[in-house]
Amino acid sequence: MKIGLFIPCFMNELYPNICKATYNLLKSQNLQIEYPLSQTCCGQPMANSGCSKDVKTLAINFVNTFKDYDYIVAPSGSCVSMVKEHYSEFFDNDKDFNKVKASIYEVCEFLHDIVKIENLNFNISFPYKVGVHNSCHGHRVLKLATASELNIPYDSKLKNLLNKIPDIELVTLKREDECCGFGGTFSVQEEAISVAMGKDRIKDHIDSKAEIMTGADMSCLMHMDGIINRDKNPIKVMHIVEILAGVKP
Amino acid sequence: MSSHSENASKFVANDERMHWHDQALWFVREKRDRASKSIPEWEQLREFANQIKTHTMANLDTYLLEFEKNATKKGIKVHFAFDALEHNQIVAKILKEKGVTKLVKSKSMLTEECHLNPYLENLGIEVIDTDLGERIVQLRNEPPSHIVLPAIHLKKSDVSDTFVEHLGTEKGNYDPTYLTRAARAALREDFLTAQAGLTGVNFAIAQTGGVVVCTNEGNADMGASVPKLHIASMGMEKIIPRLQDLSVFTRLLARSATGQPITSYTSHFHTAVEGGEMHIVIVDNKRSQFLSSTKNKKALNCIRCGACMNTCPVYRRSGGHSYEYVIPGPIGSILGSAREPQLHNSLPFACTLCGSCTNVCPVKIDLDSQLYSLRQDLGSADLIDGKKKMAMKVTAWLMTKPALFDFAGKMARFIVPKLPNSILYNKANIWGKQRDLPKMPEKSFKEMFKDGELDD
Asked: Is the confidence at residue B1, as pLDDT, over 60?
């Protein structure tokens, strides 16, 4: 089983240690990981801004880079959902794209469903109160957990994984899956609302006594981390792979 | 800055009021959650509703004719209006023929869409909105800020101040019961003196030729029964095929809208009152445009429950007026921007694409997908900000050159940490207005990987 590691462009530039944690986490499962260097960006920022036409070259580049892997794994629900949901307009039932679309996974989803949760063991204690921020694209598009709006049985792949970590305590938020207000260029175009939403999300975590806020999308966490640092809020953000890989806060 | 974001930032500036608005609507969303989860077959009902509506829209020509035939048989006069103006002209003509000088109206978003009130007022006809929330905003000369809760942007004290001015209530009395009674007394007088009543339509049943109106206040029933003349205005998408289909929608509508099992009144109008007349005006007003669009067609399935507004984190924090379109929130952003892209080009971007709206929608409209595709339509039509468009083009170009992108990142990591905050957090850095920038690491992941630093 050959796995291609897809690292979102901004994480490569800004969060190399989280990328490293992702790499090591997958390695620790005795998986064969490759990191193809020709990758750049999935094109989501442009597409969400109404410029999906500019994304075609990137989409073709992406498919060419990753088409030969059995699985493509990325530490971002939102970038994975971009490839899965919005690339089809560039490919006319193309066999390579269809393969990429079917084999791309967000890392938690991959660990939970492909490596299988029952085969996973995490030994490093994480004695903290943790709030899970369900980033929308992973949550409602990839269905990493059951959305609160739906009347179907509840499950959460992120919480199932975290619950395997010794001594961790998951807190209950007032709003299980409210958006944090990042939204790509929304964070700048609608700055006032974006920050208001971020502050409310952080407050919900602090009110719920969380010491750490975690999630599967660094973009949302980057936005809230920016507010937390500016406002000196008593909470810290960590990407879920850091917790799973045994990184200390 | 586009118009929604400007309006939204003003709404957000009053932090206390913004949070009050957010919480009031979140409360409704939670009621909706409890009501929907009390029905085990909820998701199946949504799917039924989706299928009934989708089928009906695909056969709308047939059902409209069937409806017209059956309504006519019951003595109802059916009119078809191509656009808002024709709708208003038809209504005005009926009213003029009967010598109507005062019209009582129950809630109808269609008449808001057609701007019927000012049209009739210009002709010297007095129009009284009789839904309490609608009456409040009418007295204040404001448009509704929500399609189910038209005055949700107002507090008790605002209502009291309005009533002091227009209904002569006691100054400083904020008691909701007192204020409601005052409105009721004034409206009762209007019901008794109006010569005509106009209602909206929630569902028009092709099989029976009757229309159904769902309200909580009974005002539609008063307006349709006391005066001898009843006009019902409806968008042509309000048709459902059979009476039995109605049960699917009545189970979904009130639960989605307010979390009630059913509206207090679900009134069926099948003919005129004794000695009176009933008219139905069926309006297109660009609905055909949606019917012929592959991507936006499902927007016509909307039953106007308002659940997408209540759940929308942007709507809750920006208020309905920030959208500057007759219908706000996710569905309004679709309708407004598809109808008048030049005017409403900021609306599809007043959204984080969180997808909560799509999940609460009782008829399963693909709201977030449509908002995404409308963004592409605006981009193709050159209706997005030129600077943004250029920035996206440059970024996309840069991303096709992996080596150049790596170099750009390296330069940023070299330069940015050396910049003083006064330069880093300049006016153009909108991100940094209320948020710190992430700390620049020494190396990118790619560099760490190349330098063999991963396996330690």
From this structure: no
